[in-house]
């Protein structure tokens, strides 16, 4: 059945059902969701309930017929024609080397919509109760499917310090994924990242709980609609918060390793972004692979039920991470059946990987490990999502609409704006930047990240056509067509067989200025072809650039391969150098900090990254990005986040301070802070903080004003400073504006020894500035009564 026929048939069926007196309650759209859930649950067999808990991998669930149409695969039919049809699928439209979906054999947006329509039609027409499928897709910085917009990764998004811009990106990401039939988008990643050796730092919003929470809430608002109000409009979907919890501070930097953290720190810092996003209405959460204090998060009832549901009021569904239930077997469980029982009892509703629920849930019931009420509770949460999403009324999408929406020009513009605002200027010696096109004869563009498309996209990225990505080299050439631009790669990220430093030096010596692009890469090898068996067909001597991305944990932070040799050689020419780091973690930047005239970090800036970097280098855009993480001087400093208790303490053999501090970022103009006032309001329940911000330079620019607090004396030890408010303010030259922040119980609260969130009476110290180590204004105020939150 073709997609257009499916949509038309669905409309006819829905109309007929609405006028039929014998229509089951669960198929009556006018009935409240809870009545529909209860009615459908009462009609389901135990096997049908168990099937709803399953979420297998989806990219093998469709096949392309000789006539070009998309149909359910035999594997899909096997999973859904029996007594236990599957409730959901994950990553059906995912394309990457793992799934073996390429530009040649993968699905365009229209084909993707047609594929999910076909699977949905089978579920509705060929199963006893016709329960639609809940499709979940990866959406951390864009839908991980062919044709979708590739936005900058999490660190770059956080580097904008601009929540409304991130809300817009979330809305666009949701629109693209929903238009192809997805109902759940995995993202944002809210892990607090304080361990740069960890391979997934790039996905996060950085080291700070407040910044991550605000950005996470903004992304949720965009993906789901304001407080989830629009999730059933065909343009939004459910956001999945990852990874619950404490996943970003693994011992030794190893992905999934134990998190050594106590209950106060866990709540007050590592879980705060999730609390913000849950308050914003996030409908789904994903458990994490790691353990906290010896208890696996996927089997932690105190965490997944006691805190998440009972304390925070979360009413949605919890996914396991892929096979995170399976890994309980042999640790806290004797087998997968017992592992599934532990996870279900803890509060995990959906088994991503589908090996421990389903038939094993029924076996667990027979063994007395769970009750049918446990299954019913989880199934009800899943059905509630499906009803509220409108899947029973509108299970299909329009492939033509998917073509119009996915990869839209307006979405590319948002990606470019995030890359502009998320790139931080860390150094600008002698005001080398911005470069003046009219005075330049030749620019040398050098380095392993100057013209490698996938190196700037980050992990969780689908294959891309060449014309969809603008590299730094391409961006500079487009921005300065009258300037001669000479490109020499110089070396690869890791492969020393590609090194040609002599050619790079020759190009630098002959140029007026060099743009040197170095760093790292999370690029999986998209250019590798695959045999029918799935075996990679590649040169055995090939060394990929990948040094970051899930599973690529590192012991050191030094740029790999011959990059340091190349950098030193270019600096030794004595010619002006602009160094650009493209990176997924905070790499060693000491050499560049000492010798480069200008230094930028763009993290992974997405498909429009090259254009955005050129915009900054030539001054078409005034940089306003700020660091969402502290840049360490060495691995031996770790952890080095700004709010650590040991701030200010040096080592016997080195500095204890970061190379560049959290919140740091330069501009082509300057700003002055003055006239701080702190006034109690609302009978002393809140404090209005105001100050005057003035652009004292000659260019229009945006300043990110940052407010930090310290509870001077508290029942639990408090960091020397914690970010509690921030605002991005654009000002013209000479313009002055009064900036206001409102502080209340949420900003002033701490967790006490009883793990209660409270505001304790006492003195609070207030700091306002341009970064955590550039405080311009200080003040104090006193709270006179306690608040229990």
From TrEMBL:
Residues 1-21 form the signal peptide. Keywords: Hydrolase, Signal. GO terms for molecular function: beta-glucosidase activity. SUPFAM superfamilies: (Trans)glycosidases (SSF51445), Beta-D-glucan exohydrolase, C-terminal domain (SSF52279). The keyword Hydrolase applies. The keyword Transport does not apply. Belongs to the glycosyl hydrolase 3 family. This is Beta-glucosidase. It comes from Paramuribaculum intestinale.
